[in-house]
Amino acid sequence: MGVMNKFMNFFGLQEEEEVVEREKFQETDEPELETPSFDARRNQRGSNVVSIHSQKNVKLILNEPRSYDEAQEIADHLRSHRAVVVNLQRVRNDQALRIIDFLSGTVYALSGSISKIGGNIFLCTPDTVEIQGSITEILADEQEYNRMR
Predict the structure, then answer these.
(1) pLDDT at 133
(2) Which of 34, 54, 115, 149 is deepest in the core (most CB within 10 A)?
(3) What is the pTM assigned to this prediction?
């Protein structure tokens, strides 16, 4: 009879009866701990709800380097699993290229990503942060719109 119950349970035909049998068995032996009902266990398995309070605070660092020497500070934030927005508008173009090259290598080594979100503004993220969409497409559309006017 046990094989038949397992077979019926596999196809979902006898779930409730088996739970009733388990509960009776536990009540007769030793009622040590109260077990959740079948519906509660099923909801726990099928649920994709994550408590907001269980996750630690996520920090986003805003950084505006004035020289290449500050690139290592940005890399340290990335290694600490913090996303960094880098504004390179106050740096010469040759220094900005060196900083972006350094950050690109850092992001690659950490399996993160780097995205341009504006003119000389970049978003560097570690592997724990996912970036969706692209702001540069919106900026390109806006520039085309202004040209047509």
Answers:
(1) 76
(2) 115
(3) 0.54
